[in-house]
Amino acid sequence: MAVAWLFGLASFVAADGHFEAALPRQRAQPTGIHNFSLWELGPTVRASSYLSGWNEQHHPLFLVDGRQWPGVVEKWASAQGDRHPWVEILWQKPHDLERVVLRHAGWRETPAFTARRYAIRCLTATGQDAVVTIAANEAAVAAHELPCRQARGIRLEFERNDDDIVRLFEVETWGR
Amino acid sequence: MTRRNAMLALGGIFLLGLGLRVLALFGEPPHHPDEFFQYLEPGWQRLGGAGVETWEWRDGLRSWVLPGYHGAWMALFARLGVRDGVTFVTLLRAHWALLSLTLIWAGWRGGALLARRRLTAKVAPARSEEANGTTAPAGWQGGLLAALLCAAFPLLVRFSVHTLSELPSILCMVWALVLTGELAEPEVRARRAKALSTGALLGFGVCLRIQHAPVALLSVLWLLWARRFRGLALVAAGAALPAAVFGIVDMLTWGKPFVSFIAYVKFNFVEEGAALFGSMPRWWYAQTFFSRLPLGLPLLGILCVLGIRAGWPFFAAALVLALTLSTQAHKEERFAMLVWPLMLIPAAGYAGACLVRRVSLSRPPGTGSETIAPPRRHRVWLAHSATAAFAVLVLADGALHCRGNDFPDLSPGRFAAQAWAGRQPGITGLLYDEPLYFGGYLWFGRPFPQLQFEPSLLGNPLFSHVVVPRGSQAMYAAERQGFAQVFAAEDFVVLLRQAR
Fold first, then answer.
1. Exposed, middle or buried, B127 (CB in 10 Å: 0-12/13-18/19+)?
2. Which site among B36, B45, B437 would you substitute to test the A interface, given the most A Cβ atoms closer than 10 Å to its Cβ?
3. pLDDT (0 to 100) of residue A13
4. Does the distance separating the beta carbons of A39 and B428 come in below 8 Å?
5. ipTM value of the model?
6. CA-based nearest distance A33→chain B, Å
7. B98, B292, B329, B403: which has the fewest C-beta neighbours closer than 10 Å?
8. Chain B nearest C-alpha distance from A164 (Å)
9. Confidence band for B371, pLDDT divided at 50, 70 and 90
10. Which domains can be identified in chain A, with CATH numbers?
């Protein structure tokens, strides 16, 4: 029993606490250009952490809820202690990615909360990942061209504004 | 009584305790939000990423030792294929219920010890007789009675299935006090191992619940009183191990040794921050104890006072603990749960000693046999009846007054509704009326968002389900937005979004 518990303890210590959730697909994929990260198309969302107080569940799945007028709680925010926040959105099947649109905190909150430095990486089966790096973003809704064939998903890696947490309302990935 | 018969009786008491704990496992509602949010949810969140982080965890007021202990079990259960949140919680509750059976063994040894301490050499069986294994240990009457009370006292049974820090600390402190008493005995075997174990138990008990520290002081005082100075040094050495464990875990998780312990003490005792969660009058614990055992408590108190010469460390520990806790503005019943075994064991020890004395006085002088003269049988019968009546009174009184707890809003209906919603294949998010009174992400068993109900959130398509009280404004608001009832548990309903 003790050995079994120690095995469990080793697994527990090895866990890094990252978040992962796969949404069930609600409808078939459209054929034309569309946002294939939308929640109803069944994406998997992974995140390094999230701010998770009782009434401030800034859950990573809000990144793909497609809300046009979200309240301030309906955004992803990284945890206070997370020094290197990241988010991944993975799709059920590969897509030809054209551009990524990020709705930053400034879209609904003060512009000071908008993430300024981040990188967007296209994830492919071959590992030949296209990357776009943004060093001084000011846009509340930022559109980034990232042509990438047969992409399985994207990964966003953030550098925090000073010691602040990262806030992001929505991630849209357009292509076909 | 022969040793074999005493062990059979003790086995029966264990089975009774086990049966009652099984009933508690499936019938006992949650006692306090902390049993989810402080000791289970952090471990769950580390394993799966989804969880509720309370302010204590954000500000570093909690040690990772107990959530880590639970987390290791969760990781193991997950490897074994457990997926359902309620199953995780039930397994952990069953684990604590099983561990709480050790309290019966502690009661047996503590009751026998205290009964033995009261008995004279004439009455107690000779050590040689005991050593050859044929006779039950001296004071077995007190031991069996204490074991029975620890097995079946309703509040202890109820409390045995809750994943709170109080329970492991109670087990540690009661065992430590029993072992201290055995160390103070003139003839002790394996004294060094016993002293080190006592220290380790005291250390774990105090590190888990600093509020239980007065009991540790009584343990020290007992050893000093019995002039067991070497034993005391070994106890101190034993206590260093758990202290080191807690210090190292704090260093690895919060960055500095004992930092969570210091922050906890500072917030609760220096800044009296706990008063933010409610202040009660000084006599609140006394009132609560009386409300739990209106007839039995005075009897327990009388027996403890009558048996004070032998049982003073237990009774004094109970009193000092209750008085110390009464000085704190914020009071909760669980904080003082340790008082019960600390009173039940000495009272049972005294009652057991009285029984031995009454029976032995009824024997013809100089025989030492079990033969009792007819006129005296009546007295023996009376002594047995009085002892049985004491046990029945305490247990029945306890059973009649054991319902309810500090958080009546922790309704089983809420938990049933949340668990049902979590098991639905199409769920993508849950809105509920009061996050504090639900079971967090572990009970939900899904990583999808859970938020307190706000009408504006009904517009977010992720929220597929709503759990709210039947007939509430929230229920009507959800129905107006296209949700319909699909499940009900007590006063709570689950509503499902009909169209996105």
1. exposed
2. B45
3. 94
4. yes
5. 0.95
6. 22
7. B403
8. 15
9. low
10. 17-175 (2.60.120.260)
